[in-house]
Amino acid sequence: MNIARARLVNQGIANPTFDQPGDVVAWLGALQAQDYLGSLWTIGLRMVSATERDIEAAIAARTIVRTWPMRGTLHFVAAHDVHWLLELLTPRVIAQSAGRYRQLALDEATFAQSKALFAKALQGGQQFTRDEMVQVLEQANIATAGQRGYHILGRSAQDGLICFGAPRGKQQTFTLLDEWIPPTKPLARDEALAELTKRYFTSHGPALLADFVWWSGLTSKDARIGVELAKAHLEEITIDDQRYWFAAEAPRRQADGAALYLLPGFDEFMLGYTDRHASLDALHAKKIQPGGNGIFSPTIVIDGKVTGTWKRTFKRGALVIELAPFRPLTAVEHDAFRSAAQRYGEFLGLPVSQVLPA
């Protein structure tokens, strides 16, 4: 089995079949959305046809929602999953943040007071920008400097009080979660563990147990329990003495080896795993994460392998894509790049001006 090619298919990048943003997000279980604009493309490239406006329309229609369910990082999740995912995953995130809370002099009384202020300010469907949320706190003499405001917002979301609403122009807004997404029937803990495990290995497989632990933020013990609970839906294969899990009914189609994909920096194809050797040569790892600070560059993927990086700029109303490949591209790969660039331009609704390497 070619792990990288299988992941391209199972993640929905190769041969996309999804028509709705909510279906993409539900399939992946969750997708990192720290880079808001990049995360829109993460969804769009897995759809048969999509524009940036289509993804933002799904946010406004409340079929997908952006919040802090796992790893202390922003993710998109499907609306019908948000409540049980928060309940399952955030208690450990909160516990792991205790040291940072102490550094910032944030205690449970401050969090409780902040949530009460937000609940009152946002009731009735109100949506506030980040600056407006900070103002609510500052007016009550709750200091927000030095990342205190960020952690108060994140904790309020992890506790299930707030989530992101619809963007107001270029600004993100916050609103009350239970008003934005009415609560669904809760899942028992084992049921939630089984569901998340099945989703992960179905969409991200073949993957290691350690990959799932990293991605979900669960303990190794809970991850193993999840695998046992979901085992009827999974298969395993041993490659180079490592046990990989994937869906028992995984698609048998193969990724097109000649296809080239322009992935955003925080795409699940990279961020969904702690072991990335199947797709990324260790020699190039620092080129993908140049500062070693958790910021990932957008990647060029050919035949499942990260083959370079790219960046976008805008000039005179057109999209300019600059490539930094790790090796010279062949004529066939140049053609594949033009197709990928055209697709991304259509997603943004802009004509494309391509800048190819010499």
What topology does this entry show?
Elements: H1 3-10, H2 21-28, E1 31-32, H3 36-44, H4 52-60, E2 64-70, E3 73-78, H5 82-96, H6 98-103, H7 108-122, E4 128-129, H8 130-139, H9 148-158, E5 162-164, E6 173-176, H10 177-180, H11 189-204, E7 207-208, H12 209-216, H13 220-230, E8 234-239, E9 242-247, E10 260-263, H14 268-271, H15 285-288, E11 299-302, E12 305-315, E13 318-325, H16 331-348, E14 352-355
Parallel strand pairs: 13-14
Antiparallel strand pairs: 1-3, 2-3, 4-6, 5-6, 7-9, 8-9, 10-11, 11-12, 12-13
Helix pairs in contact: 11-13, 12-13
Strand content: 15-25%
Mean pLDDT: 94
Gyration radius, rounded: 21 Å
Residues in helices, as a percent range: 40-55%
Please count the beta strands (DSSP E, at least 2 residues each).
14
Describe the protein's architecture and organization.
The protein is of the alpha+beta class and 358 residues long. It folds into 3 domains: 178 residues, no CATH class; 52 residues, Arc Repressor Mutant, subunit A (Orthogonal Bundle); 96 residues, no CATH class. The chain contains 16 helices and 14 strands. The strands form 4 sheets. The protein has a 5-stranded mixed β-sheet with strand order 10-11-12-13-14, covered by helices on one side. The two termini are 35 Å apart.
